[in-house]
Each structure stands twice: as C-alpha cells, then as structure tokens.
Task: inverse folding
C-alpha cells in the first residue's frame, strides 16, 4: 500500500472515484423538508421567474438568507433541469471542493502525507459527508470559508514571495465575499475574529500588514456589494429584516426558538467527527507547540476552531450545521497528527469504528420500537436493511484498519477508516429515504400531479409543506398560516388568506365557477372543513395531511 500512495496515477484514481461516488449519491433520496424542500423550491422559482435579485419562497418574499445557494441551484436547474440531484449539486461540489482544497493545502504546507490524510479525514467525517449531499446552506458557507482559510494559510507562509502572497490573499478575500453571499455577516466576522485572536496569542503582529487590505477589501466589496444594493433598491424593507432580525436578533435573542446549552456543539462533535474523534484531542494538543518561523500555522488553525465554536456556543440560536466551518481546520490538524500518531492511538481509532458498527448491528433490529404509529412502524422496519449495511460497513472497515495498522501500514489504515466512515454515512442517509419520502409528501403529490396546470389554485390550510411545492412545480396559497412566511406576507398580504372563513368563501366561489382547485389540509383542521359542507373530494391522506380537490364526490 505504501507503493500505492507513492503513485500519482493511483492517487488521481482515488480522487476520481471519490468525486464520482460523491456525485452519484446526490440522487438516491427524496428532498426532505423543511430545509431541502425550501431551498430547492426557492431555486425553482428563481429559475422559472428569471428574477435573480429578489429571493422568494412559495412566491413570497423571503430574505432570511443571502442568494448564493439559490443562485447556484437555479444555475444547476438551468443547465440540467429541475430535480433532486440538481438541487443538491452545489452542496456536492462544495463538499468535494473542500476536501480537495484541504488536501492541497495540507500537502503544500506540511508535506509528507499530511495533505492526503487530511483530505481523507474531512471526506469521511460523518457530518461533512452527510452535509455534502443534503440541500441546505451550511456546507456552502463552510466550503467558501475553507477557501478563505486555506488561501490565508498558504499566503502567510514565510517562503511565499510578495506576488504569490498577493494572489493568495485576493483568493482569501474572494472566499470571504462568497461566504457573505452564502450565509451573511459571519463570512467576515468569523475570519476577522480568528485573526484578532491569532495576532493576540501568537505574537505575529505583522500579519495585519500582510493581508493586502486595500486591494482585498476592494475585491470583497466588488463581489458582495452589488446584490445588497440591488435587493435593497427593489425591496426597501430587506436591509432591516436581514441585518437586524436575521443577525442581531438571531444571535442575541431567543426569537428563533433554536436555543441550546453552551456545550451543545462540543457534545455534537463526538458523533459528527466519527471515526476520527480519537485522534482529535492529541492533534489539538500537538498544534499548541510553537513552530519555527514568523507565521504560526497551527496556532491560526487553533484560533479558527476555538473562536468559531465559541462564537456559536454563546449565540442564542444553535443548529448542528453552524459548526461545519471548523471541520477543514480539524482535518488539517488531524492529517498532521496521523503521520506521527502512536500505534496505540491508531488501533483505538480502528477499534472505535468497529465497535460503532457492532453496536449498530445489534440495535438495528429494534428500531421499530421507536415507532408511535403503525405507519411509522412500517417505515422504521423498511429502514433496517440499509442501516444494517451501514453498520456492517463500519465494522468491516474498522477490522480492516486494525489489521493494517498491526502490519505497519498506516496509509492503508487511514484509507480503510475513511472508507468506513464514508460508507457508514452514505448507507445511513440512504436508510432514511422511506421516512424522508413520507415526510416530503411525494405520494400525495402523485395523486394530482398529472392534473395540475398553471391555472389551478392550490391552498395549504394550517400548514406549509416545504417539499410538496417543489414536487408539484406549483406554489400554494397559505391559509391561516404564517410561521417563516410571516415577514413576506406582511409585505404582500394578497399572497395568503388570513382566516378559514375567508378561505371557505373563496373555495365556494371558485367551485361554483368550475375553477380547478386543490387544498393540502392539516389533518387537525380537516374536520372543520367537512362541517362546512364544502364541495370537495378526498384524493389522498396521511396521518398528518389530507389532500382534497374542489369537486364534490
């Protein structure tokens, strides 16, 4: 296996297999609500309307996030047509890019196999591997921030000449601009905080002069400012909502109802970094040692990890995806450490992966006991074969990694563990498909999909199903429902119906006129519609939803 890693052709083959498989898995699951359905629908509407400035959800102004993810997914739809893998393509590309960028950076800065190991670590960390095929904003900002991080690390090396440093720093500033367009002000606040901590703790005060701030800031503004000016010009209400409600309030207030204890992310790191969690404490400790030269690479990586985790830990809004930007830095440090890790540490890493697989295999047959309804029981039972494959892959990979390390084949051990972590993630994600399909409501959509035309009206009564609008290819009129659509409905109240009484009157009017209409109804409200004697026919139903059309049976 040592010869394998010395062969460039074999390494290119390994990279090609990773890229191909990472793209293929984008198309094995239904778009799960709320996030996957939401962002796919926003991109579909941008693709259909051609409005690349005002972002909308269900036809309603939606300014919670900047537009980069929506732009990239709409571009994917433009090139390949709307679909599930097309909606996930930007995340898949970001996941691949992050792995390759980390590998290149690790090899260039640390040499040896540090870059190769770092790339394999990042590719197989369960949370990075999962986020790479899940349609949400978090991996996009993690990848663009990793671009900023890696470019900064390369630019600041002592042996880099002035021209190279300038080019790499411009790439760093470009990464921050893309991060701003991906998720908001954290794109510059987080790197700025990291640099402040680094300068304070490393003694490298001269880093501020080496950032090329004037040309860098000019590029940053040139890339990021135009959209903010355009969207504010067309929608004067956007800046206050975006910068105050979605930044200040989200960080300091509990209005978004996403609170968590201060140790939320520290606990989440344990499963999120499998199978490499065993190596992380030692790699972080090793990074504290001072390096020769002016720029302290590992100190900056520590500042990156520590400040970002601290920032989100004190925030009043916490979601698992927020911590993704620290994973490239963790992978770089782990890659350096794995080259010199003791055999005991490497064996414990392999053993942990095997133990996770064995425990998972033992408990998989009992997943049905989690079900609370007969429908859920059938779904959980249907998940068991794929879950068994996931844990079996982890078990076998852990055993293979153990024997490889016992024979002194460190590279083979890392590759086996990486393959085990990646397969564990992919099979687990695939196992979720029966439940994801149920939640997405695709079976309900099939009941009317062939009938839908642009002239049809679809109401969503007491609910808004994020994925169904995408699969129907049709927006809905929310009835007695606001939630995340509240701000947009305040700006455009005509796009919703505030009360059931108004809905009853409109439904009867359109039914009398023979207009095609449908309603997705919260099951808890359906009885009230029946009591009104509305002309309607049940087309499909689940435990939570009833789909009706506007013609009496």
Result:
């Amino acid at each position: 296996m040592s010869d394998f890693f010395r062969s460039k052709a074999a390494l290119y083959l390994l990279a090609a297999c990773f890229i191909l498989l990472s793209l293929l898995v984008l198309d094995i699951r239904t778009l799960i609500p709320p996030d996957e359905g939401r962002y796919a629908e926003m991109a579909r509407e941008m693709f259909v309307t051609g409005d690349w400035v005002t972002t909308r959800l269900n036809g309603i102004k939606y300014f919670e996030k900047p537009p980069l993810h929506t732009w990239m997914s709409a571009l994917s739809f433009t090139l390949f047509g709307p679909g599930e893998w097309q909606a996930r393509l930007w995340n898949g590309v970001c996941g691949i890019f992050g792995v390759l960028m980390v590998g290149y950076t690790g090899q260039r800065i640390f040499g040896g196999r540090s870059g190769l190991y770092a790339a394999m670590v990042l590719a197989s960390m369960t949370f990075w591997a999962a986020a790479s095929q899940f349609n949400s904003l978090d991996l996009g900002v993690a990848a663009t921030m990793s671009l900023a991080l890696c470019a900064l690390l390369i630019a600041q090396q002592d042996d880099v000449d002035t021209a190279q440093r300038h080019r790499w720093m411009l790439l760093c500033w470009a990464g921050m601009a893309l991060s701003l367009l991906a998720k908001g002000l954290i794109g510059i606040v987080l790197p700025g905080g990291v640099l402040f901590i680094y300068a304070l703790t490393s003694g490298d005060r001269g880093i501020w002069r080496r950032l090329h701030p004037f040309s860098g800031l000019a590029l940053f503004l040139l890339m990021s400012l135009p959209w903010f000016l355009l969207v504010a010009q067309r929608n004067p209400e956007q800046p206050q909502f975006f910068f105050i409600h979605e930044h200040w309030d989200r960080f300091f207030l509990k209005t978004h109802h996403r609170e968590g204890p201060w140790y939320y992310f520290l606990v989440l790191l344990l499963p999120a970094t499998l199978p490499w969690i065993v190596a992380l404490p030692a790699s972080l400790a090793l990074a504290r040692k001072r390096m020769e030269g002016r720029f302290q690479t590992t100190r900056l990586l520590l500042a990156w990890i520590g400040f970002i985790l601290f920032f989100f830990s004190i925030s009043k809004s916490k979601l698992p995806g927020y911590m993704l930007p620290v994973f490239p830095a963790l992978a770089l440090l782990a890659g350096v450490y794995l080259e010199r890790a003791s055999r005991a540490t490497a064996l414990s890493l392999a053993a942990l992966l095997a133990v996770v697989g064995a425990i998972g295999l033992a408990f998989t047959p009992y997943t049905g006991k989690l079900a609370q309804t007969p429908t859920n029981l059938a779904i959980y039972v249907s998940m068991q074969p794929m879950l068994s494959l996931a844990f079996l892959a982890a078990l076998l990979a852990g055993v293979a990694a153990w024997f490889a390390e016992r024979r002194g084949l460190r590279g083979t051990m890392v590759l086996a563990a990486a393959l085990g972590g990646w397969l564990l993630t992919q099979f687990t994600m695939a196992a979720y498909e029966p439940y994801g399909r149920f939640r997405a409501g695709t079976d309900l959509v099939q009941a009317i999909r062939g009938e839908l035309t642009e002239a049809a009206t679809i109401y969503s009564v007491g609910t808004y199903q994020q994925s169904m609008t995408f699969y129907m290819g049709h927006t809905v009129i929310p009835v007695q429902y606001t939630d995340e659509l509240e701000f947009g409905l305040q700006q455009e109240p005509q796009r919703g119906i505030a009360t059931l009484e108004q809905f009853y009157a409109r439904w009867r009017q359109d039914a009398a006129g023979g207009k095609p209409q449908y309603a997705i109804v919260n099951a808890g409200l359906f009885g009230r519609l029946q009591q009104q004697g509305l002309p309607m026919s049940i087309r499909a139903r689940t435990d939570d939803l009833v789909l009706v059309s506007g013609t009496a049976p």
